[in-house]
Amino acid sequence: MIQIQIKKLDERARIPKYQSDGAAGFDLHALENAEISACDRGAIRTGLAVALPIGYELQVRPRSGLALKHGVTVLNSPGTVDSDYRGELIVILINLGRETFKISAGDRIAQAVVKTALQAELVEVGELGETDRGANGFGSTGR
C-alpha cells in the first residue's frame, strides 16, 4: 500500500474514502452545486489536491450508476493526474442524457484509481519490426 498526501483547498471539500475493502477506486465529491445541460459538459471542482509518489498516476473514471441512470460520464476517461501535479482535482463530466443533470455539493461524481505509471525511453528508428497484422487499422484483427 502506498500513501497519498491529500490537501483540502476549500473547507467544504470532502476527503474521499474507499467504500468497501475490495474497492479499486475511491469516490470524488463535488465541491459546489452545478448543472450540466443535456449534451453539454462541465468542469466540476472537488476542492482537493494530491501529492502522488513518482511512478504513480491517479486515474479519474466514471461512476457506473451515473452513467446508467443519467447518461453522465467522465469526458476524458480515464483522466490522468500526474505525480508532479499539485493543482485542484477537477472532474470533466459530460451529460449524454436527455435532461439537465443537477449536482449538489457533496455528490459523488467520479471515482479515482491509483495506478503505476512507467516512463519509457523513446528511441527513434528508421524501420519497425514486422508482425502478421502490420499496419492494418481499426477492426482488422476481427476478420
Please characterize this protein's 3D structure.
By secondary structure, the chain is mainly beta. It has a domain at 25-119: Deoxyuridine 5'-Triphosphate Nucleotidohydrolase, Chain A. It has one helix at 64-70, and strands at 5-8, 26-29, 34-36, 40-45, 48-51, 56-61, 72-74, 79-81, 90-95, 101-103, 108-116. A four-stranded antiparallel beta sheet has the order 2-11-6-8, with no helix packed on it. A three-stranded antiparallel beta sheet has the order 4-9-7. A two-stranded antiparallel ribbon has the order 1-5. It is globular. The protein starts with a strand and ends in a 27-residue tail after the last strand. The model has no long low-confidence stretch (mean pLDDT 96).
Over the alpha carbons, how many angstroms does the gyration radius reach?
A: 19 Å
Tell me the series of helices and strands, N- to C-terminal.
Answer: EEEEEEHEEEEE
Averaged pLDDT: 96
Could you state the CATH homologous superfamily of the domain at 25-119? Deoxyuridine triphosphatase (dUTPase)
Percent helix: under 10%
How many strand units?
A: 11
The tally of helices reads 1
Structural class: mainly beta
The largest sheet has its strands arranged as 2-11-6-8
CATH class of the domain at 25-119: Mainly Beta
User: Unreliable segments (pLDDT under 50, ≥5 consecutive)?
Assistant: none
- What share of the residues does DSSP label as strand, in percent? 35-45%
Main sheet makeup: 4 strands, antiparallel
Distance between the terminal alpha carbons, to the nearest Å? 43 Å
